User: Fold Peptide/nickel transport system permease protein from Nitratireductor aquibiodomus.
Amino acid sequence: MLAYLLKRIAIGLVTLIVASAVVFLVLEIVPGDPALVMLGMNAEPEALAALREEMGLNQPVLMRYLGWVSGMATGDFGNSYTYSSPVLELIGERVMVSLPLALISLFLSTAIALPVGIFAASRRGKPADTISMGAAQIGVAIPNFWFALILIYLFAVWLRLVPAGGFPGWNAGLWAGFKALLLPAIALALPQAAILARVTRSAMLEVLGEDYIRTARAKGMPRRIVLWHHALRNALIPVLTILGLQFAFLLAGTIIIENVFYLPGLGRLIFQAITQRDLIVVEGVVMLLVATVIAVNILVDIGYAIVDPRLRTRR
Assistant:
């Protein structure tokens, strides 16, 4: 198990290095001059030259890449030219919104999807199964920003139970911050719950056809015990895979939702940085998300071994 874990970490590091090169080169070939975008079309040539010198745009591409990578390795992500502050400081402020939002969304989607998927699998071919999977199909088809607009109208405009947008900050209290994140978390969780419910149902149906499940039922074991303690544990591997992918998506894919609810998170930060051509911020946020995806995949592989002891023996 230790050798497997070390191998996965080594593969993750190589992937991170390759991803850094791809991210840097993609942003390098984007048309337009960042200095010209920041200063405007009527900027003086001397001012443009000074800003290019300050941003390091006059250096060779390889030197800029090596300087950027070595800086990130030591915790120096550079300085934002739009916000005039360190990129790492900006990320630290914004991640305190995006990370709780992703965690709440992941919890809600899991709490909804697992019971629905198990319920549908245990009633295969019956009206309850058809209704559950029909609702899941609707959840997959409808985009999360549409859910967000409906939730704002119902709970913020009509019922006035929660704020329609904005974030008061965690200094205003845990409950105030949670209320501000509740609607965007639900809007993010519903489509993900629909996907996870369908995966859970498929995995459960495959497991429920195994011989050991029929043996447990033949011995008189209660249906609830068979479903939750035997079938679900063996159906968790594909579910864990989707959960890992969903967490990465929820952390990285909040650009639309954070703009709908006017949340100062990573999604809104990267949207503003792209609009303002603040490339150093874009590079820093994207690399943070890449590292998060790699770390989550390693944790999912560890979860495989925890759920299924046969994998530990095989590895």
